[in-house]
Amino acid sequence: MTVAPHFQFQDQVLHAEQVSLVCLAETYGTPLFVYSRQALHDAWESYRVAAQGRDVLVCYGMKANSNLAVLNEFARLGTGFDIVSGGELARVIAAGGDPAKVVFSGVGKQTWEIEAALDAGIKCFNVESQSELVRIADIAARKKMVAPISLRVNPDVDACTHPYISTGLKDNKFGIAIDEAPEVYALAQTLPSLHIVGVDCHIGSQITEISPYLDALNKLLSLIQTLSEQGITLHHLDLGGGLGIRYTDETPATPTMLLTEVFKALDAQGLSHLQLVLEPGRSMVGNAGVLLTRIEYLKRNEAKNFAVVDAAMNDLIRPTLYEAWHDVEAVQPRAEGEALTYDIVGPICESGDWLAKDRTLALEEGDLLAVMSAGAYAFTMASQYNTRPRAAEIMVDGTQAHVIRPREELTSLFSSERLLP
Length: 421
Ligand code: LLP
Known about the structure:
Helices cover 28% and strands 25% of the residues. It contains eleven helices and 21 strands.
């Protein structure tokens, strides 16, 4: 059993759904991202079932994986999108997503991005500072439009996750301190080009427990109470994303576990009428993908054994950036042969170029490895460092494989560059 239900062994070969990863590597080369369409459906289904009978809008946190095929699939299933840039808005539109189901988060929204979002008719701006609030109001007024807004408040709760992906603490750059929120809402109330529609928070990522969400929710509920005393009524409450996935042996809370408690708290406060917005990213796609890579060389020095593979930190930066653990599976595990402890490293000229450390595997040069749980924050964080073309992306659907992004051509990496006169 691997960590990802849609990537399992059949006849001793790792498959994506019904397609052998050996065949995909031979056809499309490596490094290669391989996704499972069914895994996307199942992830969506776990939110849909959890939300049944209630007014819930899932705005997929598309920074996790923004390939148009992925976005289009979710749009067809009915999701909205959480965007953080004008570029992401353009992707949503190109993928056939509904702008009316888009929420726009991020601390640094630029004028052109705010204009584009107003023109597209998004659902809501998640405003992260008073200056941004004023800027949105000015732009909307100039365009003779009314901007729907929600304040992203920082509830100062510990999401108990890696410090780089924790966002709801006082010393993070995100959101408006919850104590200052009533004042900023009061200002918004005076600006006729703004329409207050909600309140929002996002406390972090790869959260496996529901208690940090409930701590944040309780703070938001008392803010909603204060606002109603100020004469402000809200249409929705956005709890952000952040539910974790299994990378190794985690048992993250499920959407049902989370939403059951959230609905209980809303009902207890007489707030069942509030629409609930969620912004899940990782839990929608993380275990829907693997990074397939081939071993170029095995080498050893005095201290260590290394498997040098053709994928690198430019394809998957999470290990070196967050010391993140990704399981590594041999695509065709060797029954015989000595298992040694390897660091799995790439060809990039950085000591930080590693994908996994201290993994005990029986390996030979030419073997294929699958780096698991690479559906989220993998391709979207990829770069071309060392002038390496970004990998191709394949979507498997049952027995079919579809190229959803071909491997980048070498020349395309520098064809837009210009020589000096
Ligand atoms: N909403 C907002 C405002 C966010 O900032 C994020 C993620 C999400 C939703 C989606 O969160 P998720 O459900 O995926 O946890 N690159 C890091 C993760 C960064 C998350 C940034 N914000 C990683 O690879 O672990």
